[in-house]
Fold this protein.
Amino acid sequence: MLRDNFNRIHDYLRISLTDKCNLRCTYCNPVDLPKGFFAGAPRMTADEIEKIASVFIKEGVKKIRLTGGEPLVRKDAGEIIQRLAKYPVELAITTNGVFVHEFIETFKQAEIRSINVSLDSLKKEKNLLITGRNEFDRVLDNINLLLKNEFHVKVNMVVMKNVNDDEIIDFIAWTQQQPVHVRFIEFMPFTGNRWTNEKVVSHQEILEIISRKFSFSKLPDKINDTAKKYFVKEHKGTFAIISTMTQPFCSGCNRMRLTTDGKMKNCLFSKNETDILGALRKGMDIVPIIKQCLFEKEESLGGQFTTINNNPLVSKINNRSMINIGG
């Protein structure tokens, strides 16, 4: 069992298969870094991903989520999914939805039942502005394909003031007829994404906007939940808010991250990283290294800032871009 210095049990591993993506979402991609900035970094092979994952599973990991970049752009993504599906662990994936139709059978064979799909606008033109690519129809078709095949579909929407906050009501209306589970995510600061306080739509502001049109009730949260969940009566779907910036959920954190170049991050905002891949390639026992990384985990938000209420100095935060960490 993996515990940190605050006695939090860590049984959830997020593995980034690649830092490459076919979209160019403004909140994820570093706008100022040159093309090919990460090209020289080592990458975990499928064998290495399986070996490292198996160690984490032996140490108590019960859930693995595959992320990116866009995980499905990796040529051996299907093989990796099939390999990890052999282990006694809940397997999940976060995707931008563009290639989902090519992997439906793979998901079924791997018994992946819950898929997170990123979609930040229900308007085609605005989606193009946010993502930089004209893939809206394909993503919407693939969400409907997942629903038709009875997958549990969570739709991740990063809410940005004066960008897409005017669509919050539209996303709630979507849950009336379709069993989609919308997750509104507060805009978070990462290297190169030009985050400012003014662009954040807070948890409370989101609820206030929704309350203008809908009456809703709170759903119970589990200790490790990152999302505060709600439902509107007689709607087929639900909604939730990931309130990292205004109401952090660090006290119940059970997550660890492995970047595509094999670095372990004990927090999304941790400035320090541990080279798991390098140790594996040297034939070292990586268990003590994993445990030491966890022991060094800060109590909240990587120890780099508190909440938006204290006006964090983003320029002082030492971290990667979101695309290079893994969602």
User: Anything to note?
Assistant: The chain has a mean pLDDT of 91. Residues 12-153+252-325 form a domain with the TIM Barrel fold (CATH 3.20.20.70).
